[in-house]
């Protein structure tokens, strides 16, 4: 994917933060853009900011399969076939797994994981059927590699997006469709205020909002990377067909430490019965995996 001009892009979580940054960067590259967001007030503000541009807004709860399909139909009827998809919408709860409720799980999984699944399942078959290539970019996070006790559910969803995205990259490459995964660190965004858009139906067991904690998170996010910077780095990576988009270079050393710790956990055990036969099977899988990576990297 080297040419973005003239394509139609669909960006979830597009009214604020990284999503809005992506929308503006895509428009600057000559794309028509649909920004989808669950917040109607934010969507109206974004559309006002982007008035007189080739953009449309769609109110969308990404956790709904039906709503996603309807939104896709509306956008493609107005802007033409979508060949750039940015599954970017996300929410967060800054708490541990054992202190969370089932509704906490359903909310974050619905947006952060099922929102990506719904975007892929809505648009990937259409893109394959039409030909013409394209690109899907799923927003994960450095939280898809690095985690602590909190935010446990958020980490879970982002690790899952990582596996989904890599598998998708290999299955779509033969069809000329690229896949990337954006892994930002701290961003100047409003994710700290996720509770404000939590559905009433999924508030069972929810903790009372700690206003002081939220205010402190707001200050932290003010020091985050500007969305426009992340957007430009993302589009550069898509043009170069890179899978991992590490917008924040400050994580390189820490990620290296974690990978070194992972590799250090391997042991040279004595040979177990059946190992030679098992290694023959694994050799075939390894060769297939290597070939899939080569095909995906060669996509232009």
Automatic annotation (TrEMBL):
**According to the lineage, what is the superkingdom?**
Bacteria
Entry annotated with the keyword Oxidoreductase: yes
Which keywords, in A-to-Z order, does the entry hold? Oxidoreductase
- Asked if the Swiss-Prot or TrEMBL record annotates the protein with the keyword Transport, the reply is no
Q: What's the family?
A: Belongs to the short-chain dehydrogenases/reductases (SDR) family.
Which PANTHER family does this UniProt record tie to the protein? OXIDOREDUCTASE SADH-RELATED (PTHR43391:SF82), RETINOL DEHYDROGENASE-RELATED (PTHR43391)
- From the Swiss-Prot or TrEMBL record, give the protein name: SDR family NAD(P)-dependent oxidoreductase
Phylogenetic lineage = Bacteria, Pseudomonadati, Pseudomonadota, Alphaproteobacteria, Sphingomonadales
